Amino acid sequence: AKAGLAFIDMDATISEPGGFSGSGSESEEEFAYGVGFSFNVGARIAIRAEYEAFDMYDDANMISAGGVFTF
């Protein structure tokens, strides 16, 4: 399990034909947390999976899976 702060810096620019354009930016510090596991398949190989959540204005969640080869 893990918990902490996420520092978020967003910039956006929009340009459309006909002359419309706009831009904006936002910075936030939000609480983040997650859980995960790792399973050894052999002496040098493992697989892992994680779930992370960020308490932003539109709640962002992430699920990831990966492999590890130790050499």
Walk me through this protein's architecture.
The structure is a single chain. By secondary structure, the protein is mainly beta. 0% of the residues lie in helices and 76% in strands. The protein contains no helices and 4 strands. The chain has strands spanning 2-15, 21-40, 45-54, 60-69. Strands 1-2-3-4 form a 4-stranded antiparallel sheet, with no helix packed on it. The chain is elongated. The two termini are 26 Å apart.
Topology (SSEs and partners):
Blueprint: E1 2-15, E2 21-40, E3 45-54, E4 60-69
Antiparallel strand pairs: 1-2, 2-3, 3-4
State the gist of this model.
The chain is 0% helix and 76% strand. The protein contains no helices and four strands.
Straight-line N-to-C gap: 26 Å
Count all strands and give the number.
4
Helix content: under 10%
Element-by-element helix/strand order: EEEE
Query: What is the typical, i.e. mean, pLDDT?
Result: 90
Task: Assign an overall shape.
Answer: elongated
**Rg:** 19 Å
Number of helices: 0
> What is the topology, as strand order, of the major beta sheet?
1-2-3-4
* Category from helices, strands and their pairing: mainly beta
DSSP strand content = over 45%
Task: Catalogue the unreliable spans.
Answer: none
Main beta sheet = 4 strands, antiparallel
Attribute tags:
single chain, 71 residues, mainly beta, four-stranded antiparallel β-sheet, 4 strands, 76% strand, elongated
